[in-house]
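Side project, low priority. Logging it here so it doesn't get lost.
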Amino acid sequence: MDNLEKNSKFKKFSQYKSQIALLIMTVSVFGLFMITSPEVFFKGRIYQAFLSTVPIMGLMALGLTFVLAMGEIDLSFPSTMALSGFIFTSTFQATGSVILALIYSLLSGVIVGFINGTLVTSIGIPSIVATLGMQFLIRGFSNIISNGLAKTVALDKTISYKIFAEKLGVIPVQSIWFIGITIFFYFLLFRHRFGEHVLFIGDNREAARMMGVNVNRVKIMVFILMGIMASFAGILSCYRMRTWWPTMGEGYIMMVMAAAFVGGTSMFGGEASIEGTFIGSFVIGSLEAGIVAAGLSGFWTQFVCGVLILASVTIHTLVKRRK
């Protein structure tokens, strides 16, 4: 009886090995930052900054988690973020209506996601190729219609600014959106039929199809979800900066992918971690500030990020292999 209890406890512990490894990595990273630059990381201001900047990246990482869980990839989200931001600012300037600006901006993400999903499912183009092409196409289109010029909008004078950019006490509202969407996505992926289908497709697409899952429809819906997340990230960025830049979204692609991989989502599909992506976003999002505060060059950021990705992927792979 004692052996059965021990085996049961060991199995329960084994189920959470990846989460424990991620937690240890997170504590180690922030602990190292506190040791090397205590004058920065023992003050609340730096964490307030993280709570306002990381959610923009983290929202796209949550969307990408669904795409990866399905066994696909999306490389178009940085350009989708830029296009949606341009549509948001242009619509607001033309109409003065925040509601119309929000609708048109999010609709652009839906359209991009639908096109990506259709290219992958109906035509059969590999997702890495289809979304890479869309990445260049959308970025070029955004630059053409904007003439490469930035747009400034007085969003701070609207009521919506309090909803999307101000603080609730000392906590930036962006982080509350991030937490809320993370919780919603957790239940969507692990407690809803849609998420069950996503993971089933990622694990075995043909088996999912034989079991009656509409694989093409689910894939299109996931790419649409990714487009919406990229659009919402663009909107939050416009509120935060009160300016749209033609370069919006550039530099996010590797950070977003790193957040998902460090969090424990598998590139091969069928396995994902929403809470891992949430934590991974803060780990990746804090690297540059921590490295610079420690007195090192910002060039170290990519090196350390690469180490974390390789270490986390190695750990998750070994844990999965033992299972």
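Brief comment: The chain has a mean pLDDT of 89.
Revisit when time allows.
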